[in-house]
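Long-time lurker. I teach an intro course on protein structure, and each term I like to show students one example going from raw sequence to a predicted 3D structure in token notation. This year I'd like something fresh instead of my usual example. Would anyone be willing to generate the tokens for the chain below so I can use it in lecture? Attribution to the forum is fine with me.
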Amino acid sequence: MTTTNPLNIQEHSHGGPLVPVQTRSERPASFNHADFPAVTGREAEWRYTPVRELAELIDGPLDGGHTELNDPAVDGVSISWIGRDDERLGSVATPEDKAAANAFTNFGEALLIEVSGEEAKTAVIDRLGFGDTPRAAHVFIDVKPHAQALLILRHTGPAKLTENVEMRIGDGAKVTIVSLQEWDDEALHVSSHTATIGRDAFCKHIVVSLGGKIVRLNPTVHLNAQGADGEMYGLYFSDAGQHLEQQVYVDHAAPHTRSRVNYKGALQGEGARSVWIGDVLIRQTAEGTDSYEENRNLVLSDGTRADSVPNLEIQTGDIEGAGHASATGRFDDEQLFYLMARGISEPIARRLVVHGFLNEIVQQIDEESIREKLEHKLEEELHRSTSALLGARADQNEGTAA
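-- Reply from a regular --
Happy to contribute to a lecture. Here you go:
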């Protein structure tokens, strides 16, 4: 990328005006924050995002010091800090937007998580103590060939954070990586997750966003080796005034690769907002690809907005299959009536319907104790949100009666 033409805009093949980037695969990238033009909110990658509220993470000075975390002390999972000169950093991903480039420019040391050993293992890594200072961070997850693990990155407390997370999945490995956002209500979190999956390796990436004021977590998977298999799941519950965003990108570059994408979310409360953009690229070299992506949104009240944009780019006709689906629907009053007719109160009936809708994603976590904790956290979120909704409705009815 050059500063004279940072968007890499090319002249149209038939002459005439310059043509902007048309597809996700053409998006320019740079480690240098100065290479990116000013963010206005009209750019394809920013048009759904409240950029004014993220200005200090996109362009402002950032504290690059590392913060508090716990070491779960699990055999086969090593946690350490490495300097910017480590050759692994930047080997998986180059920042594709200005916030990611700002994070890469300003982080001091990177958190390194190394996974080895063919026995199954679970590690929960709590990341906390970010505070209210705008911060930059970098995480590198290095999964060795044939290693197996379930890794959970859990985020809590206050935060103003922009970061990059690189994941290198070795040949034959089998790993599940979960990013759990349980931030405080006013937290801001912008994160780019990028994985390369090795030959005959399997990676399941799961995003669970429940807390925070604005959370924009964009995962990318590159299937660069034959037999690579990637599954990407997401669960989000957007409450009043909350913005939860995911821009997913799957890049099939090698023969006989497979991907599945399934994101599900619920929205309730005035100003609740969710954004899901799903891009899948099947390159000419990706014969025998098997790919499918979908996004489902459940709208629980008025005053919400769910944007869902699936995109599929196919450059070869020799594939096993490819498809995508998107749907946004309102709460089913018939289901609510059915439950209430059997003596279940409205708050509990609402929580049962939403829990049943989202539980498909929870079940993707292959650890019962973790699923139970997540289900409990989801129940708390549903209870809080439903109580607020019914309370507002009661106040409205009292005002009407008066």
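Some talking points for your students: Helices lie at 55-58, 98-106, 333-340, 346-362, 368-401. The CA atoms of residues 249 and 362 lie 21 Å apart.
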